[in-house]
Design goal:
The chain is 7% helix and 56% strand. By secondary structure, the protein is mainly beta. The N terminus is likely disordered.
Length: 136
């Protein structure tokens, strides 16, 4: 028992270091995207996509969602967006689960595994897809 107490003391008071739940976050991740392609879309999904082009330097996205539902999204290191719980959803499709954020004329889908980031222009029915890796 004395050994256990010594180990506890040696670890210090921060038992949750490294856990996103430690500071109230339920999701806290950053992603890098190395490829981009433009597409059109309709109610059936993406179509008429161009070639995947390399992005240099990589496009970055960081998302943090606090336990109270408040979300902060940083795009490419300089564009910060803040959302309440009513301004985004957690959705699922054939590619996995993703967070969907909506503004006036565009939506943004950020997959939880970091595989894709999609900007949907709802006025023009076009989409810009950022990819972590090539799709073939």
């Amino acid at each position: 028992m004395a050994l256990a107490a010594l180990l506890l003391a040696a670890c210090g008071g921060d038992w949750t270091a490294g856990s996103p739940h430690a500071d109230g976050a339920i999701f806290d991740r950053s992603f890098r995207y190395y490829y981009v392609m433009d597409c059109r879309y309709d109610s059936f999904g993406l179509y008429d996509c161009g070639y995947e082009e390399p992005v240099s330097p990589a496009y970055t996205a960081s998302l943090r969602i606090d336990s109270d539902g408040f979300a902060s999204l940083n795009l490419d290191g300089g564009y910060n967006f803040y959302y309440t719980e009513r301004e985004y959803d957690l959705r699922h499709d054939d590619y996995g689960s993703y967070y969907s954020f909506y503004e006036n004329d565009w939506d943004l889908s950020l997959y939880r595994d970091g595989s894709q980031l999609i900007f949907w222009d709802t006025r023009e029915n076009t989409a810009t897809v950022y990819l972590y890796d090539l799709e073939y």
